[in-house]
Amino acid sequence: MAFSRFRLDEDERRIMHVLRSHGSRSRKDLAATLDMSASKLTRLSGTLLAHGLIAECPGADSVAPGRPAVPLCISPAAGYAVGAVVHRGLIEVALVDYAGGVIAHRSQPFDDPDPNAFAARVTETMHDLAIAHRLLGRRLLGVGIGVPGAALSPDGARRWTVESLAAWRGVDLKALFEERIGHDVWIENDANAAALAEYYVGGLMRRCSTAVVILLGHGIGAGIIVDGRILRGATASAGEIGCLYPVDAPRPSTLDLLSTLRSAGCAIDSVLDFDAVTLGYEDVVADWVDRAARQIAPIINWGLAWIDPGEFVISSPLPNRLLTALVERIDYGTMRIGDHVGTTPRISVSTLEGTAATLGAALLPIHATTIG
């Protein structure tokens, strides 16, 4: 059975979830946490050890006399995965290990709308990074691609992409990229990918089981995590909140801010060197932040009513200081927060510095090994 297709049973997934969300644990602690007999825990953990998904982590101090208990942990050496996302004017490629640790991340200029050119650049970059980090010969679990746009097929392989990626529209991207890159490929909406990164790497899984990640990228989209799973919906298009904004009016997105700056005379084409390029246009940026906060407030309100998440996360390739200012400008007084919400909703800014969609894309093959 190919590693990337390995499926765990319910109890094995519960073990993996505890280790991912709470860190290393002894067999005794795991059995107690999961209300599982010691013999069953030993048998199941033995299977996971044999598949290389977990490892024994010696070195922990013993809290009791006698032979110290050797804790179990997710094994980084189980393999690695690649993620890639294209933004306006640049491409990002990331490598993560099986435990979710970031091995490498590279951002570079790229402005070719041809998906074949994208695949060639991803292949070249992932090979260079594998050499640089001595990963050749290690188990590559697969490649995840974050794509902006609504799904056109139930599996999400065909998408109605944004205008700048019109050549990607309706194409079976999974088949195309697997042929060009030569490895198993997962295709996912970029907001869903960002949500996966926030859940695993950003620490959401330690704070709540249900969350909404709002991605300000090519457009505006939402990735929804419910009980640790991505909510995709009947047509794989859950979270397409961009359709809630009038098509003939601006919406709060990275491309919208870049367009607003260009209209004001700023020579900007991408978020690369954003602060340096926008010197002298601080008032334009501040006005955009005010407007974006007003536009996002209803989305937060509707999200509370429909999803009741434990947290909202704002993610974007834009500088975090802009996202922080945006969150601070949301006027809760204009929102109709339901009686079930005792305090203002928890809204945080991504700690992943704009890399969430790329890291989440790399986590797709890893996430697939532990879902039902």
TrEMBL record:
**Name this polypeptide is given:** ROK family transcriptional regulator
Q: Which InterPro entries match?
A: ATPase_NBD, ROK, WH-like_DNA-bd_sf, WH_DNA-bd_sf
| Signal peptide annotation | none
Its transmembrane ranges are none
Protein family per UniProt: Belongs to the ROK (NagC/XylR) family.
Q: Which organism is it from?
A: Sphingomonas panacis
